[in-house]
Specification:
Length: 355
């Protein structure tokens, strides 16, 4: 596409600076106009800027011109006008996910990595995602499926979907050709993808009640496909597992959580850091059997009383063992997201593209 020259200035006044093009973050190579650059000082304090012609980064220590970075190699060390040194690097996916403006809570990088591995998200995969949140996991899925794959995301809330769309497009520099975003209920939309035949290789759910989506997921998953759910509480985990068992055409579910403990490394002072990423959520996976084929029941030795009808039906155990009561966000202690928080997230995303 041919670029148009900027309009001529009137009466000798300087014309407006050309607007930097929107650049995706998923790139390597020398810095160019429109790139986001992460500056780290000697104490690893981070500042993210967007490169503009004639732009400047101001701090209490001095001023650093963007022109020093344009055309420089990723990882270069630069100095501001007072001699303060900065390491300049293009932000990684994990940096973007943790810092991006959001309304709904995000799936942290440690869990995204587990989802990609144990969900077996491969290049060319057709993935159906529900509960798009702020778009962090969607970005990871799109990178994993590549140009030949596809990700179809379903979100019940229009405001969450808008935030997710802006975040994903900011990361990739524009609309992703392999991504489709729909607003609605999973149970209603999933069966319409390809009526009468399996349509997806993987189903990834991040929602309040994934057990309600088991039947619809089974309908659209290919034989041998992977069902994966990310849930926050033990009761959600139990209820989803029992729904998979009750369906009959999923293998015995596996569940786990992950903890990441960073370490301090300085000379002989090698020890765990005082802070760590502990529980964020549970992951649960199961495989779809051949359509119409009942799954082989795994022989187990349940603890006494774990299947006792009187215990299962006791009010204190609601949520465990496949109970039938309906849950809302209040039952899980989930906080609502204020509309002004979502508006602020959208504003920060759009302003941050050029900041």
């Amino acid at each position: 596409m041919t670029e148009q020259p900027p309009p001529a200035a009137h009466d000798g006044a300087p014309g407006p600076a050309p607007r930097a093009p929107r650049r995706g973050l998923d790139r390597t190579g020398p810095f160019a106009l429109g790139d986001k650059v992460q500056l780290a000082d000697s104490k690893n304090r981070l500042h993210t800027i967007t490169l503009k012609p004639g732009g400047q980064f101001h701090s209490h220590r001095g001023v650093l011109g963007h022109d020093q970075l344009i055309g420089a190699e990723d990882g270069v060390v630069v100095e501001d006008n007072h001699g303060t040194r900065y390491q300049a690097l293009r932000p990684l996916y994990a940096d973007y996910m943790l810092s991006m403006p959001r309304g709904a809570a995000i799936i942290y990088p440690k869990d995204s990595a587990q989802i990609l591995m144990w969900g077996d998200i491969f290049p060319g995969a057709r993935v159906l995602e529900a509960g798009v949140g702020s778009g962090g996991l969607t970005t990871a899925l799109l990178r994993a499926v590549g140009a030949e794959g596809s990700v179809h995301s379903i979100e019940r809330r229009e405001d969450f979907a808008e935030v997710a769309r802006e975040n994903v497009e900011t990361f990739f520099g524009g609309p992703h050709p392999s991504w489709q975003l729909s607003v609605g209920d999973f149970q209603e939309l999933a069966p319409t993808l390809s009526p009468g035949e399996p349509a997806v290789d993987r189903v990834v759910l991040d929602m309040l009640a994934p057990w309600e989506c088991v039947d619809a997921a089974a309908e659209v998953l290919v034989s041998g496909g992977v069902f994966l759910a990310y849930v926050a509480t033990v009761t959600q985990l139990s209820r989803t597992a029992e729904a998979l068992r009750a369906h009959g055409e999923f293998t015995e579910p596996d569940a786990w959580e992950s903890f990441v403990r960073p370490w301090h490394l300085e000379g002989l002072a090698v020890r765990p850091k005082h802070r760590m990423n502990a529980h964020t959520g549970f992951l649960l996976t199961a495989r779809r059997t051949a359509h119409g084929q009942q799954a082989l029941t795994r022989a187990t030795r349940p603890a006494p009383g774990s299947r006792d009808a009187e215990e299962l039906d006791h009010p204190d155990n609601d949520g465990f063992g496949g109970s039938e009561s309906e849950w809302g966000p209040q039952e899980l202690g989930e906080r609502g997201v204020a509309p002004r928080k979502l508006k602020r997230a959208l504003r920060d995303i759009r302003q941050g593209r050029d900041r």
